[in-house]
Amino acid sequence: MKKALKTALYASAVLAVSSATFSPVAVMAWGDSDGNSRKSYTIEEIDSGVLGDNIVLNSISNSVAGDEKNFVSARELDGKTKDTEAVWSANEITVEDGKDYIVSMYVHNNNPNGTKAVATGVTTTFAIDQSSASELKIQGQIDTDNASPKSYWDGVIFKSKDGSNFHLDFYKDSGLLENNGIGKNGGVRLDDKIVTEGVKIGYDALDGRIPGCYQYASYVSIKVKAVYDTNFTVNKEVRMAGTKDKFGESVDAKVGDLVEFQITYENTSDGVQKGVTVKDVMPTNLEYQKGTTKLYNGQINGLTAEDTLTTDGLQIGSYEKDSVAVIRYIAKVVDNDLYCGDNELNNWAQVSINGTKVLQDNAIVNTNKVCKEEPKDEPKTCETNPEMEGCKQPDPEVLPSTGAEFIGSALGAGALTTVAGYYISSRRKLNR
């Protein structure tokens, strides 16, 4: 397999994702950025003020959640067991083919001083082992800006029931934050980056801020599916449309550019696979170009197919052992909701056999959106806006005085008009 994202089952919006980069765990399941040497505290020690002003996470040995160093756990989602009756596995769990599981992470700022001891930059990540084996690990990590240690991790081992190889698939949009603040009444959804680069959580907002004490503790969870391995492969690649460039896992493109995707399916079983169907799950900022889907296999060389690839899926027939089918199509990069700056557009291909097991793989289009900065309003001052409320108007100019000569010249009606006109003109100049 060419990617860590390979062979992922798709069912009810299940997505496979690449594992984030995590600090290595040698012997114990839990660890931290201080060399796995952080001290444990009892509730009594915490209440006595042993931490002072220091921010420490997940280090209470007799917490209401048990030993907080063991803060990642998993359980089966059977749809029957109530949450209050569910049995969680903190170290390892046995999985069955096609079953769903929830993985949860406990996040607790141990300092008892509430909003006077806020952990900042709190980011949570789940790393899902994307290999295929009889035992796989999901590791949860908490990163902070100001805690000591700054990073904490723990994990759960997933084992197949009969020793068969399997892989774990992440359910898209399953990331959830629950707490007494923003995450109350059912929780708040977290971005799918929870399983790649991590996402910020928080108490009042998703701003990375977690005050100290139990009332501000949080639970972060995801859902995964255990999928026993199957006998075909899927590979998704991309290149700029209209070129002879080699297909690859990603391409850089601008809004308005056309990109060409390639989906390769191969039957690696010893028999015939019937009802092979290919479907494409396209992100909002890629637009499928009608009439561009082409099918290639041992008998067909570039047949234009129906435009069902991104809707109901495209049925491409039956394939014998070692047979290969290739589908190519073109999409346009558009700006429906691009962020300012770098955007990563993940396009997923899904292949199913007889409507049962589905494998998927992705290719990425990287695009950059340049946003113009709004002009900043210059602050108004009395100097630039003298008529602004609160500004003192300068006194009028003093009329020139030449003593008796001036008085005498001002006695006539014409002279009075001249003087008044001078004074009015002076006021106008002052008020410009």
List the helices and strands and how they pair.
Layout: E1 8-9, E2 14-15, E3 31-32, H1 43-47, E4 72-76, E5 92-95, E6 100-107, E7 123-128, E8 135-143, E9 151-160, E10 166-171, E11 176-178, E12 188-189, E13 199-200, E14 218-228, E15 232-240, E16 250-252, E17 258-267, E18 273-281, E19 286-288, E20 294-296, E21 301-304, E22 314-319, E23 324-333, E24 341-353, E25 358-369, H2 404-409, H3 413-430
Parallel strand pairs: 5-9, 16-25
Antiparallel strand pairs: 1-25, 2-10, 3-9, 4-6, 6-14, 7-8, 7-13, 8-9, 10-14, 11-12, 11-14, 15-17, 17-23, 18-22, 18-24, 19-23, 20-21, 20-23, 24-25
Report what the structure shows:
The longest helix has 18 residues. The chain has 2 domains: 221 residues, no CATH class; 138 residues, Immunoglobulin-like (Sandwich), CATH 2.60.40.740. The N terminus and C terminus are likely disordered. The radius of gyration is 34 Å and the shape is flat. The strands form 4 sheets. Strands 2, 4, 6, 10, 11, 12 and 14 form a 7-stranded antiparallel beta sheet that branches. Strands 1, 16, 18, 22, 24 and 25 form a 6-stranded mixed beta sheet that branches. It is mainly beta and 432 residues long. It contains 3 helices and 25 strands.
Which labels suit this protein?
disordered C terminus, 36% strand, flat, 432 residues, six-stranded mixed sheet, 2 domains, mainly beta, Immunoglobulin-like, 7% helix, 25 strands, disordered N terminus
**Level of helix content?**
under 10%
In round numbers, the mean pLDDT is 83
What is the H-and-E element order? EEEHEEEEEEEEEEEEEEEEEEEEEEHH
Number of domains: 2
Termini separation comes to 77 Å
- Main beta-sheet annotation: 7 strands, antiparallel
Rounded to the nearest angstrom, the radius of gyration is 34 Å
**Runs with pLDDT <50, length 5+?**
1-28, 396-432
Looking at the structure, what is the overall shape?
A: flat
**Structural class of the secondary elements?**
mainly beta
